[in-house]
Amino acid sequence: MLRRLLVGACLLLTAGAPPTALAQTPSAPTNLRNQQRQPSDNRSWYEAYADGIKAVEVRNWAVAITSLELARSRGPRPGRNVTTYGDNATDFLPDFYLGRAYLASGRYKEADAAFKRVEQSKLITPRNREFATLVESGRQASVELLIASAESDTAAGRYGQALKSLAEARSLAPSDRRAESMMTSVNERMDTAKSAKPSPVQTTPIQPRADQTAVNLPDLSKQTSEIDLKAVSANALDARADAKTNATNGIVANSPAVEKTTARPRVRTSNTSVTAAQTTVAPQAPVQMPPFTGSERAALANFFAGNYAQVARLLEAQINSGNESRAAHFFLACSLAAMALRGEALGSLEDARTHYRDAERGQSLGDVQPFISPRVLALLSTGP
Amino acid sequence: MTWLRGVVLAGTALAIATVAAPALAQTSLQIPLQFDFLNSGAKSLALAGSFVGLADDASAAFANPAGLTQLARTEVSMELRGFRRESTFLERGRLSGGITNQGVDTVAGPRFANSAASHLGPGFLSVVYVPGRAAISADSTELPQRSWALAAYRHEFVRVDQRFLSQGVFQRDPTELTSRRDEPQEGVRQVSMTAYGVSAAWRLRSDLSVGAGVTLYEFDLESVFRRFLPADGFFGPPNFAMETGRATQSGHGVGLAPNVGVLWTRGPTRVGALYRHGASFDITTVAGTEQARSGQFRVPHRLALGASRQIRPSVLVAAEVTRIAYRRLRESFVTDQARFSGREASFTIDSGTEVHGGLQIARPWRFRPRFRAGAWFDPDHSVRFTPSEMSETPLDRLFDERLAAALSSGTREVHGTAGVGLTLTPRLDLHAGIDISSTGRVFSTSVIVK
After folding, report:
1. Facing residues of B274 across strands?
2. Which among B206, B316, B364 has CB closest to A43?
3. d(CA B140, CA B107)
4. What is the C-alpha to C-alpha distance for residues B111 and B98, in angstroms, rounded to an integer?
5. If A102 and its partner were Cys, which of A107, A207, A221, A307 is the partner (CB 3.0–4.6 Å)?
6. Whole-number Å distance between alpha carbons of A150 and A182
7. B387 vs B403: CA distance, rounded Å
8. Residue B272 in contact with residue B55, Cβ under 8 Å?
9. For residues B321, B325, B329 and B334, what is the CA-based torsion angle, rounded to 10 degrees?
10. Contact B140/A55, CB-based, under 8 Å?
11. Distance CA A192, CA A153 (A)
12. How far apart are the C-alpha atoms of B216 and B200, rounded to whole Å?
């Protein structure tokens, strides 16, 4: 009986010992163990949240992130007038402050995700004092994420993807010159790479201009008819799809020409979002199109960036100067139709259809049409 | 006719004198002493007292000190509480035999009356000290922690103020030819218990807090029960000029009693428990010319288990089950009063289990009003008389009959509660609550300054 009691007591003592003690090796020094032991954070979620906000105010990002992450994990669903304890309430917006802390800490992906959560929650509207900060910080996070992505792509030799990211970054933050200078750098790298090893698909860099929004364009300066329009369009449409997402969240303007493109399956990677087309549609069959002029290249860039008025100005000037082409008529028609869909220039729809017919010139446009919104094409093809 | 009046008075005195000595001691028992241990604060009152599992303002200092760790800043709570309560007692009537329609012997069966008492006073005052946490600067590396809170409070724990006048019931044992009458009696009973306490709370983990406190109870009991001869003969009304006996009960003193609480939080759910030990106080009973006797008034222990849950951002529910050891009141306090009858075993008080439930709905209007309502079950915790042995003498039988009737008025009750809370400024909350039952009304308003 006594023996059983002793055995039981030993078992109890063993079971009662802390797991860390069982796991430690006998040789582990005591002071090291103490250093490794983190003090338990026993703050309530609203204390941690208040600490997080204070830390953001004093720019102590490490404390801010720790505190806000704790508040987010332990607290209720974010909202306005959330009860903390008793009859006290607060606006609980951990993702908003977390995004700012992540952004300042260089954790752009997490910042972007945090701001997107805020946008999806619709807890910050233009009526709220946090709105301006959210818009600015959200845009900044997206830009930083795009630039980081471009740097990564450039290092990996994915110049097209890098240019796309940079173009998008520049469209989001026109005053930020980093994207533009990086585009120049990427174009130079592309030139160097091409001169070292010619690509079967001729692509040459375009020089970014201040009055246009650049997208990942193929080599339009070589006056070649072998243009990877499908790839161009896919990239451009994806860029606009992202722009549409941002527009939905109240950051940038919407574009009707991309409304149908959101049906493309999106794949979330570790660093940024890309479309399935970008990852699975590799070399595409070249489309036979007339060579592009300088105005047409600029217009094309603007078209895929959704700047249809600029496209119309450029291409109308080109056509009026007698320098017509099928591409000029086609993209002018599409731009005018897109503007009509936006309700910007209803009177130009007839002109759009005229230019569309001029673009056809008895030839099929089937290779180009898949990259234009079906709504735009429907509008163009239903005329008299 | 003067001689006749003298005979009647002498006969009456003789008839009454046969039961006078025990009657003096029994008198206090014939008036039920019943009071409730309500939690402090208007918010708690409006939520039907379901506060142990909530304990989220300064009144937690008394209700469940473990909840003090929830407070993020120092708070002061002040409450003004008023009540009106009725106690039912046996006032007149004939319990056995036929009525004679002489004097006050005109009512067949027992007739009860109510003794109403009211009180208005500062029900609760507490100050909770929440220590400040380390300020966060640009180069801080330590996370500011806070694990404890301290509180001090004053609480009007019990207030009883009863006054009554009984005409004295008529009885007749079947073996006797004449009726007997319980002496007309007047009684005044005042009980007050004020609690002064300190509480401390400690947060063991982010989801678990414990609290403990010590309460100093200031106890004051003054009871005077007087018997009178009837005027105009055996069946006449009381003659207050002819006091036949007097019994008193008194006690003044202080007593210490501890309490411990725990609160566990998981998301929107909180579960709390509290044990409050009852203090004991010395009392002295003097009946007629008997030597003063010492006894004790033992405050019941209290064990409460509660829970609350924020089921929606605007909806909170709270519930509590409380076990109160009223049986402690019987020891000494009741048995001493019953000692003369030799029937101590026939007097009982059942411990009771209260069940509380409350609901709060917040509206996003100006002052963020929180509407509260609730109900709670209050078990019968009055002194009851159940003869424990067969009575053999007429006096014993009449005693049994009288006490059984006098202590039959206790009943279980359901209280309905309601109230509202307003946030006048971020640092000032105002609460109001009311508790309504068949025997009383309690109104409370409290202010919380943060």
Report:
1. B261, B304
2. B206
3. 84
4. 15
5. A107
6. 9
7. 9
8. yes
9. 110
10. yes
11. 16
12. 15
Q: Look at the block and give the residue holding tokens 């605007």.
A: B314
pTM over 0.95: no
CA A20 to chain centre: 45
Tokens coding B339? 């000692």
Contacts of B158 (CB under 8 A, 6+ apart): B35, B37, B191, B192, B193
Does B136 contact A58 at a Cβ distance shorter than 8 Å?
Answer: yes
B70–A86 C-beta distance less than 8 A: yes
- Which residue of chain A has the CA closest to B426? A88
The Cα B407–Cα B403 span in angstroms is: 6
Partner-chain contact B136 A55, CB within 8 Å: yes
In a 10 Å sphere around its CB, with 0-12 CB exposed, 13-18 middle and 19+ buried, how is residue A121 labelled?
Answer: middle
Structure tokens at A335: 């731009």
B423 touches chain A (CB under 8 A): yes
- Decide: B304 and B271 in contact? Cβ < 8 Å: no
Q: pLDDT in tens for each of the 384 residues of chain A?
A: 445 544 444 444 334 333 333 333 333 333 333 333 345 788 999 999 999 999 999 999 999 999 999 999 999 999 998 999 999 999 999 999 999 999 999 899 999 999 999 999 999 999 999 999 999 999 999 998 898 889 889 888 899 899 999 999 988 888 888 888 889 888 888 888 878 765 454 444 444 444 433 333 333 333 333 333 434 433 444 444 444 443 333 322 233 333 333 333 333 333 333 333 333 333 333 344 555 666 777 777 777 777 788 888 888 888 888 878 888 888 888 888 888 777 676 557 788 888 888 888 767 676 666 667 777 777 787 655
Identity of the amino acid at B126: S
Rounded Cα distance between B62 and B199, Å, is 8
How many other C-beta atoms can be found within 10 angstroms of the C-beta atom of residue B188?
A: 16
Phi, psi of A78, deg, nearest 5: -55, 145
B370 touches chain A (CB under 8 A): yes
- For residues B447 and B78, the answer to whether their CB atoms sit within 8 Å is yes
